[in-house]
Amino acid sequence: YSRLPIFQRQGDTAYKPGLERALALMHWLNHPYKSYPCIHVGGTNGKGSVSHLIAAVLQSKGLKTGLYTSPHLYDFRERIKINGNKIDQNFVLQFVERFKNEMAFSVEPSFFELTMSMAFEYFAHSEIDIAVVEVGMGGRLDSTNVITPIVSVITNIGWDHMQFLGDSLPKIALEKAGIIKPEVPVVIGERQPEVADIFEQVASVKHAPLYYASDLYPELDFECELKGDYQKKNTRTAYAALQLLPKDIKPSQEEILSGFTHVKKYTGLRGRWELLSERPLVIADTAHNFDGIKVVMEQLQKEKRGRLFMVWGMVRDKDPAKIFTLLPKDAYYVFTTPDVPRAMPIPDLEINADTFELSYESVPGVIQAYTKALQLATEEDTVYVGGSTFVVGDLLKELDQ
């Protein structure tokens, strides 16, 4: 943590685009990802949920399934799992020691690049049957793009990380489309008119069969354990990707239903419209960019009961003025700061709250802010915890102890 730049904590200064370091690390490890087939999942929102849904189904089929995702909520080992089990602690220690002894001064990777290398090596060492690999950021220059998958998935295109990926949806789409590989089928979760031609052009040049999940399965209604409204799109995207797998690993309808209805048990997924209490109704969700928060706030308005209390924190590379346009005006806010250097200072939240004439108080520390909200709420009220992955992570860390 102290040696490597970690975007999760630092933001901009830790971002290292390009594949040079990742390729050097893969050469050092003798390209471990070549020993198993991969499914590559990118997009702006939903790529974590889609990755977990696909992994759960593959597990339900009996395949030994590696899952690489980011960021973690509170335990580093959440990023690297096999059949829902976090990476062995001793493997982490031995891998880091090996890197320090053999490669520390010839390659200076980002935290993400070294973690990805650890994951690929662990999967090979464990002799998995298949891996589901989530893109970190973007696609074209993301270090996971060293792999050639059997299926590529791009969930959707929205406004996030514009300082790195571009200031328009077509520019962002072009970066995401960078994971499309020659002759490898690609599933796009949603047909979005402003970016569809980008995907179609890239797929055409690379002779990659392209499918839109929203066109193929507009009426798909599989039951899913993940209850957020937005999960209907993610379920459809995961289903479309699973249909493109080779016959010997393509799951049956029963195996898909089992994976979707037991995704938390299979993979340990947390923080997606997670119900923490019924009285008061307490919901935590990791939605953290404009498009993600928009969908979640629409669902919150439908499902809240009584008075609404919002435990809210953000990171400083988001645009609060834009995101605050989505927040309910009739709620009472308890502003807070997650325990990361990237946390948006409380005064920045308060300035925007004043602009939008919101009622609020501020309590540093997520668990303290959550405790305050519970004191204010009655059993008939609703408490929402979110604004950042790190707010939810801080809360779950305390509640799980």
Structure report:
The protein is α/β, with parallel strands linked by helices. The protein is built from 17 helices and 14 strands. 40% of the residues lie in helices and 14% in strands. Strands 4-3-2-5-1-6-7-8 form an eight-stranded mixed beta sheet, with helices on both faces. A six-stranded mixed beta sheet has the order 9-10-14-11-12-13, with helices on both faces. Helix 15 (346-355) links the parallel strand 12 (332-335) and strand 13. Helix 3 (47-60) packs across helix 11. The longest helix has 15 residues, at 111-125. The chain is globular and about 55 Å long.
> Can you tell me the residue ranges where pLDDT is under 50 for at least 5 consecutive residues?
none
Cα-to-Cα separation, first versus last residue = 22 Å
Overall shape: globular
- Outline the biggest β-sheet: 8 strands, mixed
Bin the helical content: 25-40%
Number of helices: 17
State the strand order across the main sheet.
Answer: 4-3-2-5-1-6-7-8
Q: Calculate the mean pLDDT score and round it.
A: 93
Strands, total number:
14
| Structural class by helix and strand composition | alpha/beta
Strand content: 5-15%
Radius of gyration: 21 Å
